[in-house]
Amino acid sequence: MATQERAHHNHINGPVKSIVILARECFGDVIMLTPLIAALKKRDPETKIYIVAVTRIVYNFFQSDKNIEATYHAKRDLFRYFFKFFPKKYDVLFNSKDHRSTSFLLQSRLIRARYKVGFTGNGNEALFDHLLELPAGTHESQRNLALLRTITGEIPETPKPYIPEMPVSEEIRKLLEQLQENQYIGINISAGTPGGHRTVEQWSDLISSFSDERFVIFSAPSDIEEKRQIEAPHPNVLATPATKNLYEVWKILDKLKLLITPDTSLVHVAACSDKPVVALYRFSPNDSRLFAPLSTLHEVITSPTQEVMDIKNEKITMELQRMLEKLFISP
């Protein structure tokens, strides 16, 4: 069946009281959506924002967000999705993907919205009333905020990203009471993409090079054994319980002085508190622009290859020392 082409407009006519956002799949993607959500609620606190998720982690993330009217899973709990969400009509639909996705295009077609907004190059531009076209390398947070141009005619100053409040375990509560403010360096050893890991030996050597500093290790559940291997032999590493959600991660990170991490969601979690970051990126010029750190103080170290482990420890040591010096002289 042929798609009926919608007329393209520069701005939305009439009030905008309900917005549906098709959220991308990963933690980093959705954290980069939160500045848009914060800006929409600041513009009009009465605006109702609905999230359509296609992964469980994104669904759970926004289920906890008080800025969101309701969250729906397009691949789970289909009865609720089809009978509670689909019958309604909304003012705006925003497809946040800037490349072809059959699932996202299907949702864009089926969801009833007065005004549909997407990016150029999404694979079916005829579905949309307005197409956002931004310069190559535009940061992901700014790409999302471009939606506001169709509503207000301008993009505001970027709000900080945020993590919605989630349950905090008793173990993490005790840890937070124990942690002194700005006394520990965080190291995240996990990565969501191939090539993002370094070895236990590399992390251990780095920690040994800073015997006067104290460290906290973050890891995904799948890397918990490596976390324990790094914690055990080093007296300047505080052994910590495993975190159960991203909010617990942020609560710990908020008490640290800085974070060292591969290019993963924790780069953006740090931005929620404007914590300094030393970020390790694989050789991928596109990613290092689109998902660059938003923290005011940050250093990006790029591997010469697709493997973060190919970054020499001497380089990380030098950049970490420079960051510590900057923090020392900061007012």
What does this structure look like?
It is a single chain. This protein folds into two domains: 135 residues, Glycogen Phosphorylase B (Rossmann fold), CATH 3.40.50; 160 residues, Glycogen Phosphorylase B (Rossmann fold). Helices cover 35% and strands 18% of the residues. It contains 14 helices and twelve strands. The strands form two sheets. The protein has a six-stranded parallel β-sheet. The protein is elongated. The N and C termini lie far apart (63 Å).
SSE inventory with pairings:
Elements lengths: L17 E5 L4 H5 L2 H10 L4 E6 L2 H8 L6 E4 L4 H8 L4 E6 L6 H9 L2 E7 L10 E3 L7 H6 L1 H6 L17 H9 L5 E5 L11 H9 L5 E5 L5 H8 L5 E2 L7 H8 L4 E5 L2 H7 L5 E5 L3 H6 L7 E5 L10 H17 L2
Parallel strand pairs: 1-2, 1-4, 2-3, 4-5, 5-6, 7-8, 7-10, 8-9, 10-11, 11-12
Helix pairs in contact: 9-10
